[in-house]
Amino acid sequence: MANIIDGKQVSANVKEQVRQETEILFEKYGKRPALAVVIVGNNPASRVYVNNKKKACETVGFQSFEYALPEDTSQEELLELVQTLNEDKNINGILVQLPVPKQIDDKAIINAISSEKDVDAFHPENVGKIMIGDYAFLPCTPAGVMELIHATGIEIAGKKCVVIGRSNIVGKPMAMLLLHESGTVTICHSRTQDLPSVTREADILIVAIGKANFVTADMVKTGAVVIDVGMNRLENGKLCGDVNFAEVESKVSWITPVPGGVGPMTIAMLMKNTLTAFKKQNLFFE
Ligand code: NAP
């Protein structure tokens, strides 16, 4: 039986640290971090994510400002709002909830967000900084995964790490963070040949594909650490990961559940990034 990595607990710890630091800064300087959350249209999943982010802001003592724009918002209108938020000294972090409606180019929006307020760490400048290991903001999901691995107490240095998925927001930065901690990293994707033979080599396996129950017991090494980033909604409405938890759990040493694994970490790391942005924009705190 594997040890379960409790993402709810680890994320609660991260948020509590952020809350405590926020209170200290508030008592000292009378200011709180402020996050602007922009949502365009009526995507129900986006609405849930935005509500969760606002709730997390309350928990840690941040201000949050929601900007809900209609489905038919033009790219120019959204760019204008981003520009206004960039210039607003009372806003420390800007988050535009993705996906945006099809008339809007998400890359143009990401590029327009000031890199200093880019708490998702999607801006090319921040992505570049991740490559060279000189970063203020880490992308929230991969950074959350790193926290979960650290929570196991397992050393990454020298371990064979396999990441399945090469997206810009999860797979690629994930691989880079593991590399920065001296893991020997392999990135797999839909064109990888004989995927099971690669994943079976992994001491640490990170799965970010978006296919329910894709990773089965025969694909993992006995005693591996398995982190399941996947979030898939089944027909019965239940949430499930990319890893077949029931099969894999008995074979590995550590595993994250879905829900309650990586999901809560993403928001906790967003809070951490917003606090970092706040401190960097108010240099007298440094
Ligand atoms: P994505 O952009 O769709 O990327 C999926 C990746 O998986 C691609 O690189 C794709 O390869 C690869 N892939 C697909 N089928 C494969 C297969 N059969 N074998 C090997 N690789 C395969 O997805 P994403 O944004 O990275 O998200 C991945 C999952 O994580 C989704 O379930 C998403 O909901 C979840 N997620 C969770 C959180 C969280 O907070 N928990 C945050 C972000 C994402 P190609 O590049 O070759 O197409």
Overall description:
The protein has helices at 7-29, 44-60, 75-87, 106-112, 124-132, 140-152, 171-180, 195-199, 245-248, 262-281; strands spanning 3-4, 34-40, 63-69, 93-96, 160-164, 184-188, 204-207, 225-228, 232-233, 239-240, 254-255. It has a 6-stranded parallel sheet. Strands 3-2-4 form a 3-stranded parallel sheet, sandwiched between helices. The model has no long low-confidence stretch (mean pLDDT 96). It folds into 2 domains: 30-114, Rossmann fold (3-Layer(aba) Sandwich), CATH 3.40.50; 140-263, 3-Layer(aba) Sandwich (Rossmann fold). The chain has 10 helices and 11 strands. The protein is of the alpha/beta class. The site of NADP nicotinamide-adenine-dinucleotide phosphate has 25 residues, from α10. NADP nicotinamide-adenine-dinucleotide phosphate binds next to α10.
Total number of β-strand segments?
Answer: 11
Basic shape: globular
How are strands sequenced across the largest beta sheet? Answer: 1-11-8-7-5-6
Strand count, sense and barrel status of the largest sheet are: 6 strands, parallel
Estimated radius of gyration? 19 Å
**In what range is the share of β-strand residues?**
15-25%
Name the poorly predicted regions.
none
- According to CATH, the homologous superfamily of the largest domain is NAD(P)-binding Rossmann-like Domain
* CATH top level assignment of the largest domain: Alpha Beta
Query: Might you state the CATH topology name of the largest domain?
Result: Rossmann fold
Derived from helix and strand composition plus strand pairing, the structural class reads alpha/beta
Provide the CATH architecture of the largest domain.
Answer: 3-Layer(aba) Sandwich
Number of self-contained structural domains: 2
Please give the count of helices.
Answer: 10
Hetero groups in this structure are: NADP nicotinamide-adenine-dinucleotide phosphate
Query: What's the overall average pLDDT, rounded?
Result: 96
Element-level helix/strand string: EHEHEHEHHHEHEHEEEEHEH
